[in-house]
Amino acid sequence: MLRTLLIYGLLAGLCGGLLGAGFAKVVGEPPLDAAIAWEATQPAGGGEHPETVSRAVQSTIGLATGAAVYGVALGGLFALVFAGAYGRISKAGPAPVALGLAAAAFVVIYLVPFVKYPPNPPGIGDPATIGDRTALYFGMVAISVLAAIAAVRVRFGLVARLGGDVSTLCAVGTFVGVVVVAALVMPGVSEVPATFPAQTLWSFRLASIGVALVMWTTIGLVFAAAATRAIERPHRARVAARAV
Asked: Model-level pTM?
């Protein structure tokens, strides 16, 4: 069963990656092109940096390939988490669990780090600080994931004494408390030039959220349908066999 779920996860991730790439192409490319055009007008603009890969390749084959690989990786990890969580964190069927995990993954892996360290278009920020900024971002991702694990453990520890609803609220409170404290303690990053168009920045960040939302929604829906088929069909077959 694990092998089957893993295959379904990889396929769901591939679908999510390709749809996310399509969304990025339609919605994300215009603000990205506007940011590149703005950078080229600056005294040390992007026109001075040679392109190792052309924009035409970046925005087509490169975008689709990168998104597909990323989506497949996410889908595989999602399937493994689902396999470990199904039947343990909820009595619900495979579809509600898969959709709930996808929603949680979007919040934990993307939305929480986004709030603290929102993405900027290429060319924005000091190249000398890119290593530090990357480390801070992935540090926030790690804290968010660890906070989610701690929240699940809190719920497990309290559910027998307080019931499902109260223990769930305590778990959510634990997660929110940890990530809020972390966001307040971790250093901020503000390297967007004052002259950079606010509308372009806003559109780019909205498109970034949209790509992640499309990917995780697709992964959740595709995997939910596939997992339901994989898990419930053998069960129905066993019930039918007993009835005979």
From this structure: 0.82
